[in-house]
Every structure is written in C-alpha cells, then in structure tokens.
Write a structure and sequence with these properties.
The chain is 36% helix and 22% strand. It is built from 10 helices and 9 strands. Strands 3, 4, 5, 6, 7, 8 and 9 form a 7-stranded mixed β-sheet that branches. The longest helix is centred in the first third of the chain and has 21 residues.
Length: 368
C-alpha cells in the first residue's frame, strides 16, 4: 500500500510539473508567482487537474443499488425547479493550488529555457564542514536510534534463538539489538555568490517599468539560488545620486530628477571592495534602466568603471533596458559600442512583460 501511494504521489507530481511547464511563460510574463513566495515554497494555481473524491450523501436512507431503476438512469436526485442564469458555452476553469519548492521551480525554468548549469569560479570555493549520517553503530543517543535496523536485529535474534512465534509476532528489542545512526564529518566546497541589483528610479521610470524589473529579479534569484548554496542580494537605487536600500524599498521607491548612472556603479564598486572579495565570491551586478543618462561624460565614466573594476571582478555584468516613453534609450547603444562581443557583458532590451522570458535567457544562457 505504501509503495502504491508513493507511486501515485510521484505520478501526480509529474503531472503538476508538466502543467507548470506548459504555463511557465504565462506565469513569467504575468508575474503570477510574485507575492506567492514563502520562505521555501511557492503556491501555484495549476489548471485542468481534477482530483477525484468521495462525498457522503446527507440523505438518511436510500442510495446506490437500492430501489427501482434501469440501466442508464442517473444516480441521485435531480435539481428541482428551473435553474438560475443562462446556459453558457465553453469549459469551466478548474484551478488547484499546489506547493512547489523554489528549487524545483528553478529546475523547471532551466528545463523550459534550456539554461546551462553555471560554472562557478574555481577560486570562489570555500570549504565547509558537513555532518552526514552515512553509517550504523551499536551505541549512541536515543534520538539517533535507527528503528528499522533495531527491529531487524531483534527479529533475527528471536528467530535464531527459536523464541519467535509466527502466530503471535511480538518483537521486543533488547539493548544489544539497538542500532544507531552514525555520522562522518566531511569537507565540501560551497560556492558563494552575490547579486547586486541596481535600478534607475529617476522620473522616467514608472511603476510599469519597475514591475518588469521586479518580475525578472524573482526568476534570476530562483535560478541563481539553485546554482549556489550561499546567495546574497544587495540593492542599489539611483537617480543623480545612488544609495543602498532593502528589497522592499528597491521596488516601491518613487523618485524623480535626473540620472547619473555612474553613481550606482561607484557604489557597486564600494560594496564589492568592502564585503565580497572577487577571489572568494561569484559576483553578478544587474543594472536596470530606461537608458537615459545625464551626459556622455557620465556614460564614459561608467565605461571606465566597468572596464577597470566591475567586469574583471564579476562572473557577468548584466544590463537590462526597459522601455519608457520618457527615456532616450541611448545607454544600451553606447555600451554596445564599447562591449559588443564581450563574453562577460550581457545586454538585453525589455520593452514589455512578454520580453521577460527572452531577457532571462539572454542573462542566464551563457552559464557564467
């Protein structure tokens, strides 16, 4: 019975994965998973899965196989009186809320977008001690007692001694029968990573543009968390001046004024220097803007900061340009002139939510 239940559960999870994968692009473009995120799980509305279930009737008598009837007659009582409303066309929606881990969601994302596994920097591996329960021993605390192995030892002893009664199979373990889980201390590499999000919050960046950044960052977080055991996120907002904020402020801040992108790049450089030695960390700066910068001089300053510091220190430098009716969109063209074909610089244009899927693939498709 337990094996059958396990097989049924595995089959159900397989169906759920298929439904999520079919609708993944819709989830991404509409941002349906944002706000559903818990600590480790995401609740997803999956369509077109009907779960069979029994329902007891509230009738006091009668039921199936009682009374007269012919083959083909419906079971139960029909609806009395005319129905309410008009007849409709089409199939009704059947939605089922299922819980999926962030790690499983990232795996589905990788399968759907055919994302390669990231190859961390070799020198970024930090050794961490881990305790793995890989063996069995005769002594140990009761909290680590292995019940199945203890039962097996007791059963073997009673069979060998001739005290086992198949008609009354009572197994009583003795202290000699007890078995306990044992552990080994191993040293395993842990690749740490940091994402440094930077976003233009000047007057030309409205709620629609920030929503694009918010949705995309959710999926970037999900994928990179699966690739690294230790992932940190830092957030920078900027107009003409940059400052570090928390995640909530990053997506809800309303600003106005001009734009000096170099202020964000300078702060990003300072954060890396202070907290994330490039030899020990996998570093991912992501900058989102509408491409409107204060001057060409400031753009050239950004280019120098990227060439001298941010690109050499990072696994990848990503720039995403969202479309705004007020932004010039010039910055991505300027970066293209200086870094076209550079293997560590990825640029992506995000005009609307439908472009988020391709943008994620642009950023993560190199496996850096």
């Amino acid at each position: 019975m337990a094996l059958k239940i396990g097989q049924d559960h595995a089959r159900f999870r397989h169906i759920v994965r298929g439904r999520i994968r079919q609708n993944l692009r819709k989830f991404i473009s509409k941002g349906e998973l944002i706000g559903r995120k818990g600590k480790d799980l995401v609740s997803i509305p999956v369509p077109q899965i009907d779960i069979p279930r029994f329902k007891f009737s509230d009738q006091q008598s009668g039921g199936v196989a009682q009374g007269d009837g012919d083959v083909g007659d419906p079971l139960g009582q029909g609806q009395e009186g005319p129905g309410k409303g008009k007849a409709g066309q089409g199939e009704g929606d059947h939605m089922l809320e299922v819980e999926v881990t962030i790690d499983e969601l990232a795996e589905i994302l990788g399968e759907e977008l055919e994302l390669p596994a990231i190859q961390p920097k070799g020198e970024s591996h930090i050794n961490q001690k881990a305790h793995k329960f890989t063996g069995i021993r005769r002594v140990g605390p009761e909290s680590l007692r292995h019940f199945k192995r203890t039962y097996r030892e007791a059963l073997k002893r009673q069979i060998i001694s001739g005290t086992f009664d198949a008609a009354r199979p009572v197994i009583v373990p003795t202290p000699h029968d007890k078995r306990f889980r044992s552990w080994n201390v191993t040293s395993e590499p842990v690749a740490n990573a940091v994402i440094i999000y930077m976003m233009d919050v000047s007057g030309s960046m409205g709620d629609e543009q920030k929503d694009l950044v918010r949705i995309e960052s959710f999926w970037l977080d999900a994928w990179l968390t699966r690739q690294y055991k230790g992932l940190e996120s830092r957030f920078i907002i900027h107009d003409s001046v940059a400052r570090e904020v928390d995640r909530d402020t990053f997506f809800k801040t309303r600003e106005s004024g001009g734009t000096m992108i170099s202020s964000a790049y300078k702060l990003c450089k300072s954060i890396i220097e202070a907290d994330y030695p490039p030899s020990e960390w996998n570093i991912y700066p992501f900058h989102f803007s509408d491409g409107d910068n204060w001057s060409m001089d400031d753009t050239l300053q950004c280019v120098e900061l990227m060439k001298q510091f941010l690109i050499p220190w990072s696994n990848m430098f990503a720039y995403g340009q969202v479309e705004s009716p007020y932004g010039s969109g010039q910055f991505i063209k300027d970066l293209g002139e200086h870094f076209k074909g550079h293997d560590k610089v990825v640029m992506s244009e995000i005009p609307n939510k439908d472009a988020i899927v391709q943008s994620i693939k642009d950023f993560l498709g190199k496996g850096r």
